[in-house]
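User: Structure tokens for both sequences below?

Assistant:
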Amino acid sequence: QVQLVESGGGLVQAGGSLRLSCAASGRTLSSYDMGWFRQAPGKEREFVAAISWRGATTYYADSVKGRFTISRDNAKNTVYLEMNSLKPGDTALYYCAADSGGSNWFLRPRQRATYDHWGQGTQVTVSS
């Protein structure tokens, strides 16, 4: 089992940047496909970005494409989400998630059900 801990959230003005980190323990992250999701109050948890275990393949939600970049450093057991040009609509609790297997990640990388390990989340608040 892998334990995931997000960090790097905070308060930032619109147009600013933040980098979120997801640190793993219990097992190396290198064998897991990873995703970032976010959830705003009163809304469903939505897909943000995903990355294959080698980092060769990435996916992004249309709402963040061109502004956010997902990356990973398997030697550090860490996945990152670089967020630029932040908007108030990006305000949410951000979660990282890991797919330990059992299904083909490439078929449904944007679906919550694909992932079976989740962090506690880190809050991102973007002011106008």
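Moving on to the next sequence.
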Amino acid sequence: QVQLVESGGGLAQPGGSLRLSCVASGSIFSINVMGWYRQTPGKERELVARINNVGTTRYADSAKGRFTISRDNAKNTVYLQMNGLRPEDTAVYYCNYAPSTGLGYWGQGSQVTVSS
């Protein structure tokens, strides 16, 4: 079993920044992918960014150049630095952990609101 605890969500102004954190605990397998997804009412959950255990990253087109995903393997933590925030970034953001050995897990979700 793996538990994911998110923090760092909240309200930001357009053009502002937020940093999301997600700490994983439990039976963590070292070979894994961690990522951030987001969901708004009426839409499917979509990938924002992900990073594997050796630092290879992928980003949604909407996130490229504005968001940066990183991780600290010693702390079992993944981060999402969000700069240049736009109102369309408003969503619930979910941390995801996907080991190579089985099913993945989701964090509790963090509300990010970008509004003047």
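User: Anything stand out in the second?

Assistant: The chain has no helices and eleven strands.
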